[in-house]
Amino acid sequence: MDRAPGPSVRLKLTLSYAGFLILAGILTFAVVWMVLLRYVPGGNGIRAPGGHFPGQEFLLRSFAPAVGIALGFLLVFGFLGGWILAGRMLVPLSRITDATRRAAGGSLSHRIRLPGRTDEFRELADAFDAMLARLEADVAEQQRFAANASHELRTPLAITQTLLDVARHDPGRDTAELIDRLRAVNTRAIDLTEALLLLSRAGRRSFTRERVDLSLIAEEATETLLPLAGERGLTIQTFGDLTPVLGSYALLLQMTTNLVHNAIVHNLPERGTVWVTASVLPGAVALTVANTGEELTADVVSTLVEPFQRGTQRVRTDDAGVGLGLAIVKSITRAHDGTLTLAPRSGGGLLATVQLPAAPPAGG
Ligand SMILES: Nc1ncnc2c1ncn2[C@@H]1O[C@H](COP(=O)(O)OP(=O)(O)O)[C@@H](O)[C@H]1O
Ligand SMILES: [Mg+2]
């Protein structure tokens, strides 16, 4: 913003400080003058024979110069003291301004770190430091994400390139197999791109909210994935109360599908179980997806939501996802003002809980 130059706060503070000092001085002298007039003999306005007031004249003559000197001193003292005091008061402000300019210039690692005991300036500086720390962490996370996403996207492209190179140097090869492999690699690239798009869409929070029943969504997601569970010899058990929430049907379905899909593909190789439960809590609703599987430690579990983080999996199946499933769940949950909690299930496997605010009662 372009602003016209104006007097500095230091000057304004100095002027008001000096102004108040002078005003106080004048008032004090006025009171003293009144008192003197009253109690000094001959000063109380009694006229001497001859028509004048000798007491007053005498008082004025001896009092006025002293007042003049005192006021002059107050003026100098007010300006000088005010200037110095205001300068000292405003030192933290210039440090804060300096830090703001640096941040605006792109340096987020700088901190103000104002020393001293708490006051308004220190509170502002601390709040500013906290904001910078948060911004810095967010930017670092975004950069990490972009680097990971580029890396993940490059993989299928590089594989495609290799397949094409091999085909060019060996024209006698079976093209049907090549096409199948190219198609598989391409599908993976599309999946990844779609997951990335979904992630950014959920993060933008720009969806319309409608009243939906989470237990119905859970039922639909489970039904769609039933064939996959069947292939792997898994049983899925669903339990559902009526669980109304306000949100995007499509996004909540995606969230539930990701959780149930994970519970199926990261399960035991055979005879595993998946439990899907929608329940009502005071003021909130919860969706719990639990599954049997490998023993997981709390340390490993805490990293799983990170984008592109895949757990320690010995067997890589074709259903291995792109590593964004839980990141998408978290993003959708957050966009719905809810929370995602992951915990190792006792006996192996994972326990994922999504809590969302309950929809207000319908109708009026
Ligand atoms: N229900 C689950 N049971 C066991 N491990 C899981 C479960 N869900 C996720 N994981 C682990 O978390 C990792 C990340 O999950 P996700 O973000 O969905 O990525 P992806 O499924 O694409 O690998 C998985 O690779 C897996 O190791
Ligand atoms: Mg997944």
TrEMBL record:
UniProt keyword annotation of Metal-binding present: no
Q: Which GO terms describe its molecular function?
A: protein histidine kinase activity
| EC number(s) reported in the record | 2.7.13.3
Family matches, as SUPFAM superfamilies? ATPase domain of HSP90 chaperone/DNA topoisomerase II/histidine kinase, HAMP domain-like, Homodimeric domain of signal transducing histidine kinase
What is the reaction catalyzed? ATP + protein L-histidine = ADP + protein N-phospho-L-histidine
The protein's matches in CDD domains, at most eight in alphabetical order, are given as: HAMP, HisKA
Q: What is its main location?
A: membrane
Q: Which UniProt keywords apply?
A: Kinase, Membrane, Phosphoprotein, Transferase, Transmembrane, Transmembrane helix, Two-component regulatory system
HAMP domain location, by residue?
A: 87-140
The entry's localization annotation reads: Cell membrane
Report the residue ranges that make up the Histidine kinase domain in this protein. 148-360
Membrane-crossing ranges are 15-37, 58-86
Q: What is the name attached to this protein's record?
A: histidine kinase
Q: Which organism is it from?
A: Amycolatopsis thermophila
* Phylogenetic lineage: Bacteria, Bacillati, Actinomycetota, Actinomycetes, Pseudonocardiales
